[in-house]
Amino acid sequence: MKPEFLKSTLLSLAIFCRFIGIWQLATMPKESAAPQTPAGMSAEYAALMGLTAPKQSGFPPPAEVGRAFVKFLSDPFYDRGPNDKGIGIQLGHSLGRVGLGFLLAAIVAIPLGFAIGMSPLIYRALDPFIQVLKPISPLAWMPLALYTIKDSGISGIFVIFICSLWPMLINTAFGVAGVRREWLNVARTLEVRPLRKALTVILPAAAPTILTGARISMGIAWLVIVAAEMLVGGTGIGYFVWNEWNNLALPNVIFAIVIIGVVGMVLDRFFATLQKFVTYAE
Amino acid sequence: MSAWKDPFNADHRLGACSCGEHHSQAEHDAASATASAAPSADLSADADTEAMTRRTLESAVMRAIFPDDNQRRKFLRAVGSGTALAAVSSLFPFSALEAMAQEKGPLEKKDLKIGFIPITCSSPIVMADPLGFYKAQGLNVQVVKTASWALIRDKVMNKEYDASHMLAPMPLAISLGVGSNPQPINVATIQNTNGQAITLSVRHKDKRDPKMWKGFKFAVPFDYSMHNFLLRYYVAEHGLDPDKDIQIRVVPPPEMVANLRAGNIDGFLGPDPFNQRAVFEEVGFIHILSKEIWDGHPCCAFGVPAEFVKQNPNTFAALYRSVLTASKMARDPKNRPIMAEVLSPAAYLNQPKTVLEQVLTGRFADGLGQVQNVPDRADFDPVPWYSMSVWILTQMKRWGYIKGDVQYKDVAERVFLLTDAKKRMAEVGLTPPKESYKKFKVLGKEFDPMKPEAYVESFAIKRS
């Protein structure tokens, strides 16, 4: 193991412990004594206010969040009807939606990106539309999607589709347009047919740029799915966050936040590996 | 099938499926598929059907009371099965349920999806699921928790839900095409009466006089809600114009407490359990219960699209009976603690049990240091009175949500299914009222449903 790697890992761990320590200090209960009825308050009132039992109010300490981790991760695949499922099942639903929306976006964006990248005319014609549509928040599409598609599940996938589309489209076009002239000229000299040129010359040359676009798209899709599921509900990690927010159960919300972060990181790593795989040295 | 285990036997394990034998419904379905392929001696015997129906009901009830199977076994070992059966039977009308289960028309549609918002108003349609009232009618109902009222509206209009928990004014608004495209939706039953409150932030403990509320920001769950109309009525009676002197914004019920804590709003007229939850979290206090504005006011309704009613008459009747059975049970004060127990898990309301208990039993901490005892804080009277509908329309007219001439009685009688409700109420042993309109008082002012236009005209603060 390289000493550099060891050092950075140690530093990461130190930052993490420090963070937990500060968190613990900041959320320490004011008095450690057992909860008791405040003076001048009837016992029944205190019981109804939940003051006689230990109650979580304010920000939860790390131990509380740790318990939430143990609770949810020890039984990730339970299914108690449509409104209460394990975290594994919720994640499965979210990943399924993201995967489907992302795949559809790739099917549209990559060929279209090729067309735009290879033809300056199409590029100029479509550019204004892309520029207007690109900055629209995907969630702004939601009411429109619900109204026209008339199905909340498909609307969710549509929102993922529409937000994954632009980075992939633009990057594909950019990558295709940036293929070195010499290579294209060689292809022309050899009289390579257009389809073969696209697949054997342009695609390998533009692949790193296309995958960068895909990586950005996936990042955005994972950001959006949580918000979309909070809006549409039913299943998914976003619904989980919303349901726990209902109950003002912050430890569970923090648990979900960490899980969202970890899954997002795994997805990003996956695309980074793919990117390395297609990168070539000139 | 030997699957019909006695739920009052401490040695039997009740599973997660409808018969109790299997770990999940999927497993159960797989098993029954094989069972029906090979003719079973047990199933062919007619006499057994009755016993099986009863077992299903008992199992469902026992599973609802004891979600943890070990607890049920412990309980039964401790008190003995005879005592347990007697105790539980006194609470649940097993024989009535059984009678209903026997009388089945051919159902047009068995798999139904019903939406709900996680508030106590939804109690009857939600508790009918864990208590097996839908199953008793041969229906396979999924109750689906939904994020907001706008989404409920969209999902009902898209036919993703066959029926849904709705705010009582929503079917009127949707049928009239106010705030959406027009689509006829019926009110089958009123879900609940009373059960709402005005909750104010603890910062305003000294501002109990509504005249001091100028500039306050209030939250209501939806534009077309009793909450909006009652809050407007209440402040207007105290001389404040709800459109000019205060701000009313739409916030989904679950987000009201978080907003109150953050100081985004000064108070809300919202559904329970969120009023009590605000007290429990020590961020708010209950200013008044909504029953002090109008005792017996409707709040939420069981909304069913007119098209569904027409296409599936038998299913609709079965659904009606399931929901009314739940209403009947919910009305009985001695069932309220059990309701709190059944409704508090994550799949349903996802709230602390003590909060639900305070809401449902009416013995609650008001956030001002007092324990109040108001047994009718929340009630579940299912009768969809035409007069309630007319009152809602007068308020929609008063605040400019609908313009022009309103055919009050016509709309009320088209949307609210009082005649059907009376018939189905009699079937489940409830006493339906004889009349269709009744007078009532809102903040001491009498409402005569026969003179709606004059009523609207009588208010000093209005938009129309």
Give the helices and strands, then pairings.
The complex is a heterodimer of chains A (282) and B (464).
Chain A (H helix, E strand, L loop, with lengths): L2 H24 L16 H6 L13 H13 L12 H32 L1 H14 L7 H9 L2 H26 L3 H9 L4 H39 L4 H10 L3 H29 L4
Helix pairs in contact in A: 3-11, 4-5, 4-7, 4-9, 4-10, 6-7, 7-9, 9-10, 9-11, 10-11
Chain B lengths: L24 H13 L3 H4 L1 H20 L3 H11 L1 H11 L2 H9 L8 E6 L6 H5 L5 H4 L3 E6 L3 H9 L5 E5 L1 H8 L8 E6 L2 E2 L1 E6 L15 E4 L5 H12 L9 E4 L2 H10 L4 E5 L2 H7 L3 E6 L10 E6 H6 L1 H19 L4 H8 L9 H9 L1 E3 L5 E3 L4 E2 L6 H13 L9 H8 L2 H10 L12 E3 L2 E3 L4 H6 L7
Parallel strand pairs in B: 1-2, 1-3, 7-8, 7-9
Antiparallel strand pairs in B: 3-11, 4-11, 5-14, 6-9, 6-10, 12-13, 15-16
Helix pairs in contact in B: 3-6, 4-5, 12-13, 15-20, 16-17, 18-19
Structure description:
The complex is a heterodimer of chains A (282) and B (464). Chain A has 282 residues and is mainly alpha-helical. Chain A has a domain at 93-234: MetI-like (MetI-like fold, Orthogonal Bundle), CATH 1.10.3720. Chain A is built from eleven helices and no strands. The longest helix of chain A has 39 residues, at 194-232. Chain A starts with a helix and ends with a helix. In chain A, 32% of the residues are buried. Mean pLDDT of chain B is 81; it is low at 32-49. Chain B contains 21 helices and 16 strands. Chain B has 464 residues and is of the alpha/beta class. In chain B, the strands form five sheets. Chain B has a five-stranded mixed beta sheet, with helices on both faces. Chain B has a five-stranded mixed beta sheet with strand order 8-7-9-6-10, sandwiched between helices. In chain B, strands 5-14 form a two-stranded antiparallel ribbon.
